[in-house]
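Thread: "does anyone have the structure for this chain?"

Original post by V.I.:
We have the sequence but no experimental structure in hand. Need at least a predicted one for the grant figures.
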Amino acid sequence: MPEALDVTCPCCGSLLKVDAETGSVVWLDKKKAPAQDFDDLVNRVHSQKSILDEKFARSVQQTRNQKDILEKKFEEARKRAAADPTGRPPNPFDNE
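Reply from O.Q.:
Generated one for you, tokens below.
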């Protein structure tokens, strides 16, 4: 069985160990990024904070919408149950 091939990624400079038989990546050693200026890091954190705030606001809005939808479904099920009080809900284990 041949050994894995060492390949350097031209885009990011990472070292890839590629299986010779299958062509799949067996191991990945990512190249460490050089140290950055502190001000650049602070600016990046502030920009990520605004993105995260936007994602959180969308999540809250989706949760509000989901609550309304579930309430409407529950009310519809309650109306159907009140219309036919003798009927029982379907059992998923019955083979009818």
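V.I.: this helps a lot. Residues 34-83 form one domain.
O.Q.: and The chain has a mean pLDDT of 84.
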